[in-house]
Write a structure and sequence with these properties.
Blueprint lengths: L5 H24 L6 H20 L5 H18 L3 E3 L2 E3 L1 H18 L3 H27 L10 E11 L3 H14 L4 E9 L3 E11 L2 H12 L5 E8 L19
Helix pairs in contact: 1-2, 1-4, 1-5, 2-3, 2-4, 3-4, 4-5, 6-7
Protein name: MgtC/SapB family protein
Subcellular location: Cell membrane
Membrane topology: Multi-pass membrane protein
């Protein structure tokens, strides 16, 4: 069996780190939870584990260590998967970490060309299939009107002293998201609280359209309650369909 030299070790390690970093650059650019350093470290760890098994000279050891890496990376991926309401976030991030470990294993096994090809494939999945996924998300169901709009309401409660500022931000956030309000109502509750409701007409994915609005306003310290709901849902006594959040004071 060919002994692992220092040059081989460094070459394989550098390839594994570079492939993980390349994947991480795309993730960092997309502002995902696991970015440049995380993917680079995952690939580095996978590479080092398999390199260790190569260094000890056991013919069957690299295969066994690679299987342990696959199992172990599952626990790390599980840590980035979050449940938010009825949705689950972080699956793409977890799968990307899994792929980073895979290219690290390939690099450590001396399959440097395969490791590079695997890295390019992961990047292609993110860069090429992302627009295709968005097109599929926006594809209307059979028998539906793609231009049909859904009325929704953004409801917030804020401190009275910030009412003017919050209303201006609400209109600005709706405009920035391409939503034109069809109605705006402010109602004073108690001595220091104002309730503001803005109705909008949204075409397509309601949650995606209002996500930026909710995220922007939730950062304001004067906002006490914030959510959106489809027209008629709240009046019927059902829970709001949107995201509710109470910013820290």
């Amino acid at each position: 069996m060919h002994a692992l030299t220092t040059v081989d070790f460094l070459l394989r390690l550098a390839t594994g780190v570079a492939c993980g970093a390349l994947i991480g650059i795309e993730r960092q650019w997309r502002a995902r939870m696991a970015g440049l350093r995380t993917n680079a470290l995952v690939a580095t760890g996978a590479t080092l584990f398999v390199l260790y098994s190569e260094a000890i000279g056991d013919p069957g050891s690299p295969t066994r260590v690679a299987s342990y890496v696959v199992s172990g990376i599952g626990f790390l991926g599980g840590g980035v998967i979050l449940r938010h309401g009825a949705g689950v976030h972080g699956l793409n991030t977890a799968a990307t970490l899994w792929c980073s470990a895979a290219v690290g294993v390939l690099a450590a096994s001396g399959k440097l060309t395969f490791a590079v090809l695997g890295t390019l494939t992961v990047l292609a999945v993110h860069l090429v299939l992302r627009p295709a996924g968005h097109l599929l998300d926006r594809a209307p169901a059979a028998g539906t009107d793609p231009d049909a709009s859904v009325p929704a309401t953004v409801h917030l409660r804020c401190e009275r002293r910030t009412e003017t500022h919050i209303r201006a931000l609400l209109l600005q956030a709706l405009t920035a998201s391409g939503l034109a309000p069809t109605g705006l109502r402010a109602h004073r509750e108690g001595e220091d609280t104002t309730s503001v409701r803005a109705t909008v007409s949204v075409a397509g994915d309601v949650a995606s359209a209002l996500e930026q609005v909710i995220a922007r306003l939730s950062l304001e310290p004067g906002v006490r309650d914030l959510h959106w709901h489809l027209e008629g849902e709240e009046d019927q006594g059902s829970a709001p369909a949107g995201i509710s959040c109470w910013p820290e004071k």
